Amino acid sequence: MGQTAEQASLQADKARQAFLARVPGSGQYLNPITVTGATVIGRELDREEGTGVVSSTCTYVQRFVLTASTPNS
């Protein structure tokens, strides 16, 4: 969120980078996500609707998907 569309877009860029960034040369994700009792085996940006304005507040809609595996499944 932000007061301008540009601010909202910059925050969306940061969220996307934090969720999807990988360590160069290793393929591992830069920011691990721990799920008790499961192993995260994938993540992706599922939907990105862009900027919207409601009551003078700019928002940027993104939806991410985590794929997880549980032991013995």
Instruction: Report helical residue fraction.
Output: 10-25%
List segments where confidence is low: pLDDT < 50 over at least 5 consecutive residues. Answer: none
Distance between the termini: 39 Å
SS-based class:
alpha+beta
Strand count, sense and barrel status of the largest sheet are: 2 strands, antiparallel
Tell me, what's the shape?
A: elongated
Mean pLDDT: 90
Question: What do you see in this structure?
Answer:
- 22% of the residues lie in helices and 40% in strands.
- It has 73 residues and is an alpha+beta fold.
- It has one domain (5-69).
- It has a two-stranded antiparallel ribbon.
- The longest helix has 16 residues, at 5-20.
- The protein starts with a helix and ends with a strand.
- The mean pLDDT is 90.
Write the layout of secondary structure elements.
Elements: H1 5-20, E1 39-54, E2 57-69
Antiparallel strand pairs: 1-2
List keywords for this structure.
1 helix, single chain, elongated, 73 residues, two-stranded antiparallel sheet
